[in-house]
Amino acid sequence: MPPDEARIDKATAEELARLRQRVSELEQLLSEYDQVTRLSRVQHDLSAALSSAVGQDQALGLVVDAVGRIHDMDGSAIYLVDQQTGALELVRHKGLPPGFVQHASYYPAGSVQADLVQAGQPVYGRYRELGVPLGDARRRGSRGTLAVIPVHYHGQVIASLHAVALRLDELPASTRRTLEGIATQIGGLVERVKIDEALRQSQKYLQMLFDALDDFLFVLNSTGDILWVNLFVLKRLGYSEEELLDQPILKLHPPEQRDEAARVIAGILAGTADHCTIPLMAKDGATIPVETKITRGHWGSRDVFFGVCRDIAERLRTEETLRQNALELQARNEELDAFAETVAHDLKNPLNLIAGHTELLEREPVIQTNEKLLSTLRSIRRNGLKMSNIIDELLLLAEARKVEVEVQPLDMTPVVAEALQRLAYMIDARHPEIILPAAWPTALGYGPWVEEIWMNYISNAIKYGGQPPRVQLGAEVRPGGMIRFWVSDNGPGLASSEQARLFIPFTRLSQARARGHGLGLSIVRRIVEKLGGEVDVESDVDRGSVFSFTLRAAP
Predict the structure, then answer these.
(1) What is the average per-residue pLDDT within 296-310?
(2) pTM higher than 0.70 for the full model?
């Protein structure tokens, strides 16, 4: 062959070799492109499938299915990390030899496998190098490559994706990227599934709670149609769930009261009313008295109304019983008041006659020369007046409970003077020192009642004062348009336990020091409160006491 032809053949051969090399490279690129496209499709399809997955088991099943679609991948497994201990627990797998599943379903904390995951970085290598048994495949001497890819969520390792390729010594870079992309999707998926599961459990517990309540619970849409009811509604009203759902809530009220119910419910939603007492009507036509409250809220993604109806039949029966008892008690009190007034007048007239006659007898010269007889007559008159005062208190106690009086400006000087006059028998017997102010502020009150207040306070000050008693009366104008009137004594004072019981009916100032009927201070309290004031006592043992009451100041 001529030299020129030889050179041409050689050049042609080299060019053909370069072309073949180029074609091979293009084929490799096309193969890699096709692989990348298929891997991208795997990830894309997985993302779409996961968006509608229900429950952890289904979602993780979709993940291992996706790994199985990757070329040369023979099996995969997903482990969840115990956040308390760091151990790994197998929750889903596919395509793995039985030996692997048997020996690798759980890796305790501190194991090689758990430590690999906790390190937080993907690891690729021969399964023998990673210490992972693959059962029958290992005994057959397969090459086998394992990928261990930690799953992160908000900086924490929460799971791990393990993938096995039994026929490869090394995973291609594109496959690694795809596996790592899938692992990234698992992170959000696991947390979402946990949240969804927690939500389902919460809803389940709420449903159990709602069904255990003895109240009618409704969820209504914006037009008042029923979206949900609890079990109690179905039991008490006799409807099935299908009969109630999507029906207007007004259907459950008596027909003749539905318009009224609509107005009241509208008022509740507008904030002008807080409850509705229109009864519910069962399927058999029976009515159930209820109190209904409605609030706005959310049911999933919907704006709804929550209605709670409480059966108030027992409460109404109790209220009716109390009303009847109150009427009966009122009737009895009126009978007792009438009887007490009759008896009091029947007793008071003879007592006045006795007091008057004894006073006349005391003036007789023959009596005045007989000291013993004179002392007896004075004792009879004193006790008669005392009994007359007790009767006046009984009458006043009944009157203060039922009579409304018109308050007027009071000149306190004659009111106090009348009280002292009624206590003349006690003043003559005890010889107290009584100190009065030079002037009194004018208050609003009712003369006969205020006179009774002074009489009680002054008589107690004399009775329980020192020897001799020293009684001082006074008044002071206070802020807020009130006047405080007071009576102080020089007695032994009162302990705190005694002060707390003073104004209770039939409680005496001292059971040990004196006897009495125990009505006085309870009458004072009732009178003062009816006049718009308050009573009070200030006392220390061995330092005397100050009893006070307040009245509104006259304008």
Answers:
(1) 86
(2) no
